[in-house]
Specification:
The structure is a single chain. This protein is an alpha/beta fold and about 475 residues long. The chain is built from 16 helices and 15 strands. The longest helix is centred in the N-terminal third of the chain and has 16 residues. The termini are far apart.
């Protein structure tokens, strides 16, 4: 069998590079490990770009890190099996956190033949020749193939790198045996102060006042940075990303302190945010940074009259339905969200689930007395369905309640998702996990969060539907 070799691209390779690019793009949305080949129609220009990137003095942008671009081939043959790109060093910023030293990809028709490992092994020799003692490789938490290749080459998991909705696993490969394992940098700390939803507040005059009283002083931002909260946030963002068209106009109703709005704006989209609580708006405004296209309006989910019909590509209602207690109000909130969404646009509606609160907060942690709530008529002693009033702050539902509410709306359900599923039941275990096991848990959660037999036990459920 011919030896496998790494070859630098030249003008003579243009026909085969073009064929590689066309096959890769026909199979995937973009290519990997190839210096941005997917954006080049002119293959000659790409070959020249790769040549210029080899030296600091010739790199088209002085801020770019010089890099070597290789193609994997069989000796004596012209077919490209894969591409691998080796950055000579890690410059502070995205490359050092998420990009790593090496990116690679295998031609779709040549996958699962061991070429990725062979290509990475050969590239590590290039790293040694340059004098590197260790190299960083990263992979998306969903990229099981890349993870397997990286681990097969003797890597050591370091930690997760999380930036908005992007979750990457970081691995180091030590190239010299005498070199100690790389020191682990500061771990992501998701052990924020424990926050609890407090019941028993003085009875306010209406639900809007109750919600305002509750959230004034409540640290919603910190809730989403605990490990269970992070699971909820990352799950929600994964589905948001799935339905965001390029240059989208997004409405977030009940935006809180803007964690989702700011993340979406960072992705280059225009965001309109509606929030009821002035305290949250003040925190939100202080957190906006230059470049984030966000407009904040004080208002509520029942009246979006400040917006015309069919404006938004994506509408998020991720909090208001927690605090609406009548079918009429819930129906009004969904109707308003649909009205302002374009035909074919997507709406996200989030709910708090009753069984999760009973099992976890009621029976498990005894944050409230189930017996007392039965005596007050807030929990049915036979079916254990719940009833809420404004002073209870949160409306708790079951999946059948969501299904009943959505009957008659001109929508197509795309997903029903347990946003945090088991995460809050095992909160202590999640907080104690190292990053490698937390990454494994995230992969499990993402695989299980749409299973219809367990969605109802989640603390938060997302109903995602398309407007007809």
């Amino acid at each position: 069998m011919p030896n496998l070799i790494l070859v630098r691209p030249t003008q003579a390779h243009i026909p085969e590079i073009r064929a590689y690019r066309e096959e890769s793009l026909a199979h995937d949305s973009h290519t990997h490990g190839d210096s941005g080949l997917d954006i080049y129609q002119d293959i000659s220009a790409w070959v020249n770009f790769c040549h210029l990137m080899r030296c600091k003095e010739t790199a088209p942008n002085p801020k770019w890190v010089e890099a070597d671009q290789f193609m994997l081939m069989k000796e004596g043959e012209s077919r490209i099996l894969g591409m691998i790109n080796f950055r000579h060093y890690l410059k502070e910023g995205y490359l050092a956190e998420h990009g790593g030293h090496i990116g690679f990809g295998v031609r779709p028709s040549e996958r699962r033949k061991g070429y990725a490992k062979a290509m990475l092994t050969l590239c590590l020799e290039e790293c040694r020749a340059l004098g590197l003692e260790k190299v960083l490789l990263t992979c998306d938490i969903d990229n099981h193939g890349s993870r397997g290749t990286i681990k097969a080459c003797g890597s050591v998991f370091e930690r997760l790198a999380i930036d908005g909705a992007e979750v990457d696993e970081r691995y180091w490969i030590t190239l010299k045996k005498e070199t100690p394992s790389p020191e682990t940098t500061d771990s992501l700390d998701h052990r924020g102060a424990t926050t609890q939803r407090i019941r028993g507040l003085p009875t306010p005059s209406n639900s809007a006042e109750a919600v305002t009283n509750f959230y004034t002083g409540y640290d919603e931002e910190a809730r989403l940075t605990t490990r269970p909260g992070l699971v909820e946030f990352l799950t929600t963002m994964r589905y948001i990303e799935k339905y965001l068209p390029d240059g989208a106009k997004v409405l977030e109703v009940g935006a809180g302190t803007g964690r989702y709005s700011r993340t979406i704006a960072d992705m280059g989209h225009k965001v309109e945010a509606v929030e009821l609580v002035q305290y949250n708006i003040e925190i939100f405004r202080q957190a906006i940074i230059p470049g984030q296209d966000i407009k904040i309006t004080q208002g509520n989910a029942l009246d979006l009259s400040m917006f015309g019909d069919s404006i938004f590509d994506l509408t998020l209602v991720l909090g208001p339905l927690y605090h609406l207690y009548t079918p009429e109000d819930k129906h009004k909130a969904i109707s308003e969200a649909l009205r302002v969404t374009k035909p074919g646009g997507v709406v996200f509606a989030a709910y708090c689930m009753g069984d999760a609160s009973l099992a976890d907060a009621g029976f498990g942690r005894a944050s409230f007395s189930v017996k007392e709530y039965i005596q007050r008529g807030l929990i049915n002693p036979v079916t254990f369905t719940t009833t809420s009033k404004p002073e209870d702050i949160f409306e708790l539902v079951r999946v059948e309640d969501i299904n009943t509410l959505m009957k008659g709306f001109p929508v197509k359900r795309l997903h029903l998702v347990g946003a945090d599923l088991f995460s809050r039941y095992i909160r202590d275990g999640l907080e104690a996990m190292d990053d490698e096991n937390f990454a494994l848990y995230l992969r499990y959660h993402f695989a299980a969060c749409e299973k219809p037999d367990i969605i109802g036990i989640s603390h938060h459920v997302l109903d995602i539907f398309r407007k007809g």
